Structures are given as C-alpha cells and as structure tokens.
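Task: encode each sequence below as structure tokens.

Item 1
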Amino acid sequence: MSERRLKLTVAYDGTCYHGFQTQEDPALPTIQDELVRAIRVLTGEEAKVNCAGRTDAGVHARGQVVDFVTASRIPDDRFPFAMNTLLPSDIAVVAAKTVPSEFHSRFGALGKHYRYTIYNHRIPSPFHRRYSHQVFPPLRFEAMAAAAQCFVGTHDFRGFCATGTPVKDFVRTVYRCDLTRQEEHRLVLDVMGNGFLYNMIRIIAGTLIDVGKGKIAPEEIPAIIASRDRTRAGTTAPPQGLCLMKVWHDPLDFPFNVK
C-alpha cells in the first residue's frame, strides 16, 4: 500500500500537559503522546510526528501543525473526525491535508503567529485563569502598546530568550507586535514573525507588563534589545497566557513580504 504524508492542524488546551513534545518520563502526559496513540489506534501505525512549534507545559494552541507518514486510506476530510473520536476532549484535529513528501511542519514554516493574553483587574476571573496571565495592578496600556512596536524588525533577540538556549543564531524577524484591548480588562498581544527563540514571546510579554507597571519606559526597549542582555529585559510571563494561533507554510497564504 502506498504511503502519503499527512498534515494536521491541531488545537489544544495545554493546561494538563507537560508541553507538546514527548518527555523522558512516560508518566508525564504530552500532546504528542496523545496524537501518536490516536494514530496508532486508528491506523495500526507507530507514527513519527513532526510539529511546527514545541509548545511548553501549559501553553495552548489553536493552529499547531503536525505531519507524519501514513499508509491509511482514510480520506483527508474524514481524518479529523476519526481522530477526534480517539483524542481527549482538550485536543482536537481541526483539519487534515495530504502534502508533498518533502513537507516538514517545523523546517518548512515561513512564519508563526503567537498570542499572549493578559487579564488586568484587581479581582481574579475564574473564567480567564486558564487562558490568560492575571495581573492585578492597573497597567498603562498606551505605554505598553507603544513599547510593543519597538520589537518589530530584524534583531538579535539574545536578551529575550531563556538563558542557555542551545542555538547559534539569535537573529529573528518580527513582522507585527500589536497590543490591543479586548473587552474591558483583557489585553491581547499578537506577535508574528519568521521564528521565535525559547520563551521569547513570554519574555516580551513580561517586559511589556513591566512597562505597564512603570518599571521600564517604552523608549528604553530599543536599548534593551540592542544590549542582548537577558537581565535587562523583564520577567518571563507564565505559560497559560500563550497560544500558538497559526503557522504559515504556503507562500501564497503568507501575509508578509519576505525578500
């Protein structure tokens, strides 16, 4: 039976999982483990599942992309329904598509869109606690929005990734970094770029929160980026506010001009 490479778009609530990637301790639940298990039950195959972004424990996704090789003859349009009968209720396959054999979710990604949500009110919300970082002191929204624009462009983001991140190239391009107010107490940070370092979005969010608290002035952000010094940036915001919204692979669908 001939094989094909299948691309899945996956949404999940990451609250109860130790990230996307399989952990050394098999007792720790991960998104990847659940997908592999469901594919095994559905097709009888032990799939090697690639992903576009290895989200951390507690991080969510609306548009995670994974791919794997399968000999299954289940049509693309039926595959999500079949998978969703086998997955837990906090994980869902929202789309499936046969792609060229050379497709790779991670290495073929043109860009990603992450969203970080802040719930800013002196009274915590039981309904937002899983999907936002609850900040109690009033934040200066206008200062934060202005500071967010300083991250747009191509920069060495060495100061905005976790210390000890094992990469050689810290240069990334941010196409958009917009902070908007949605509903009365919800601040939403949308960041789109060609790629992101480990904890980069959460450190950007933490830095903007420090701007909102008056600890950092918006005009200091360019110097902090240029310093490449992790100690000058803000704290790493907690994982529950972060969501992987979309991953672009098709140049015709990519909304940014890349030279």
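Item 2
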Amino acid sequence: MPRSGRLTRRSLAVTDELRARTRQQAAVAALGNEALAGTDEAVLLADATRRVTDTLRVEFSAVLELLPGGAALLLRAGMGWPPGLIGRATLGAGRESHAGYAIETNQPVVISDLPSETRFRPPQLLREHSVLSGLSVLILGDGTPYGVLGAYTRARRRFTDEHVQFLQAVANVIALARRRRREERAREERALLLGQLTRRELQVLRLLAAGLSNRQIGQRIGIRYSTVRGYVRAVIEKLGAHSELEAVARAHELGLADNGR
C-alpha cells in the first residue's frame, strides 16, 4: 500500500478515536448534570444505561443491583432487554455470573468470548440473548458495592481500556448520585428528629453515645435512674430503634451524637 494510503488510514483512525472520546465525555458530563439536578434514581439509571448503549454502540446495557444477603443480583435498569425482565431478572453472585465475579474480584470484567469463559459461569440472561462480548464495572456503595454496570453485544468485539474507563466514569456518577441522595435524606431526618427530641432527651442520647451508662447519666445531670430510663425509652422510640445500641448507632449515623460531654 502506498505510504499516503497508510497515513490516510492512520489519520482516520485517530479522528474516529477522538470522536469516540468526545462522545464519551459528553455522555458523562450530561449524566453528571442530571445527578446534580437531583434527578429521580430510576430515571437516572435508565438514562445512564441508554447513554452507555448509544455511546459504546452495543445492543444491551444493564445496572445489576446486589440484593440483600449478597446471593444474587437484580436487573434494576437496562436497555435492549425484552419487556418484563427489568425489575425481575436475577443473576447469581460469585462465580455464577460475570457481575458476581466482578464484585468478588473487585475488578472490571472484560468478556471477549462468552461461550468460552472459564472464570465464571455465563449467566442465562446473557446466553439467552446471544451475547458474545461485554464489559462490567463496579458501582460503589457504602461498605459493599451497590452493584455492577455492564455493556454487552452479540458481536465478537475487543473492548479497550478507554471503554472500561468510560463505563467506570458512568458508574461513578451513579454512585455519587446515590451517596448524595443518602446524605440529603440523612440531613432531612436529622432536622426532623431535632424537632421531635426534647432538650433533655437529646442530652441523654448524646451521653449514651459518649459511652455513659444510664446510672452514670443520672449522676452526671442530677436526675434519678428511673427518670433516665424514661428518657432512654423515649429516645429509642423516636429514633425508630429497638435498643440503646441501635439508637446510639442511629445517632452517629445522623450526626446527633456530638456535644455529648
């Protein structure tokens, strides 16, 4: 091939790569703006999977939520799936699926050829839709992952580090949006509880959180043990707890445990 032809091909490849990166950056930026605007979670997840499908030019995308107990993942949102699967289809955790394997290894999972996979068992959801290639990344949560974001195609395709980075950026926006909502709910709940707790109940709660026993609290603030017990019962009830320990945990979670001494 003439040198000019090779240069033209190389130039076209660079141009295509730049255009792809521009699309990816625009998609992440738009999703980030939605997250900052407080878009409803279901709407944000649906838009995230749509942008993944459009930007990576794949047939399927999915948000797979790790269910309580960690034994399975639920198809929470996605694009390309038949009606009735979203909100109902599940995958096994651990080595029973690519998503479970991603959570187990705490690493992105790139699938080159699903039928020949040996790292995990190809899940029914992907097999039934003739998926050959794909990639998955973690969506972080508090302590444990919220789940996995994935993109899949029926074609045999080589996904690059740039594709993984884009998908992880989208997953990070989802994680940050969820954390922001949790923090907003915690602030609202804290304000509500501060309005419900009396000054003395709040004082008792903060002393409990500081590690004092009921008798020590009574001695500290000069009231009877039986009176302290009454305040403690009221605090437990108002925090929706079932024990002193749970009430103290809620107090720390909501930032009510300050100034206890």
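Check on item 2: The first strand starts at residue 60 and ends at 66. The two ends are 81 Å apart (CA to CA).
End of task.
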